[in-house]
Amino acid sequence: MILTVTPNPSLDRTYEVLALERGEVVRAETERMDPGGKGVNVSRAVAAAGRRTVAVLPLGGAPGVFVADLLDAQGIEVAPVPIAGATRSNIALAEADGVLTKINAPGPELTAREQELLLETVREHSRDADWIACCGSLPGGLAPSWYADVVTRAHAGGARIALDTSGRPLLEALRARPDVVKPNAEELAQAVGRSLATVGDALKAAEEVRGMGAGAVLASLGADGQILVEDTGAWYGSAPVDAVRSNVGAGDATLAGFLIAGGSGPDALACAVAHGAAAVRLPGSVMPAPADLDAAAVTVTAEIPLERALKEPVS
């Protein structure tokens, strides 16, 4: 079982438009609503693969009820933490050329009582978990050290932690030594405090993040593939994508694929790459099912292309 923790979930509305014109009336070609938040998306991808998952998340107001209903309909066990505030609603505008514009609401502020209940709910459901995936931003009320506290408590109970967050919460959590962290290129650059122009730059940054406390680093480089750095070595994985329909949740699908395949080694990286590549071909934040995966198109190698320039360098 993979347990996910999403401190700041959302109700996500995705509109596909031909082109986004500022100041004009833009008519959507399609509309869809999905339960959102990085950990929620990991649960959705795990469930799509036919694996058991439990999603721990604070829920409040009408959007919270809607999120719970949508997750239940997808076969995901929900461990809700009732809160007084309303769950946030986010909007994504996906243009025909693959450009995505996201508007993310800040979310409600959790009271001290709600914060403690959230931690207790994680503890209650962690006993049966193979992995605990803690993902996303922290809502108001939670200190930047909150993820570090979760990592410490989880390790005390014998659980493995995968962490996908950024900024100060990531840096604080690294001191507690999470088993794996999954930054994207921008988050990786932010963690080491410098720009990344090549795959080699990203590899060096990932190695430094390991030195800060991460057991392993699974870094998403967008169109430039993924790298995995752990005790046993480093690998580079990629897969061709002809057209990007939406990259919402692609990183979350990547982490789900990695954990589904065991959470370590080149085979897990290959599964992560297959899931990420499949996710960008799907609308909105739809998570890929096994039929969407093209494992044969994935390449994983220990020969990392260090000099390869990133298509989207991070400054």
From TrEMBL:
| Keyword ATP-binding applies | yes
Q: Where is the Carbohydrate kinase PfkB domain?
A: 12-290
List GO BP terms, alphabetically.
carbohydrate catabolic process; small molecule metabolic process
Q: Give the Pfam families listed for this entry.
A: PfkB
What domain of life? Bacteria
Key words of the record: ATP-binding, Kinase, Nucleotide-binding, Transferase
Q: Which CDD domains match?
A: FruK_PfkB_like
GO molecular function annotation? 1-phosphofructokinase activity; ATP binding
Where is it found, in Gene Ontology cellular component terms? cytosol
Q: NCBIfam families from the xrefs?
A: 1-PFK (TIGR03168), pfkB (TIGR03828)
What family does this chain come from, according to its entry? Belongs to the carbohydrate kinase PfkB family.
Protein name from the UniProt record: 1-phosphofructokinase
Native organism taxonomy: Bacteria, Bacillati, Actinomycetota, Actinomycetes, Kitasatosporales
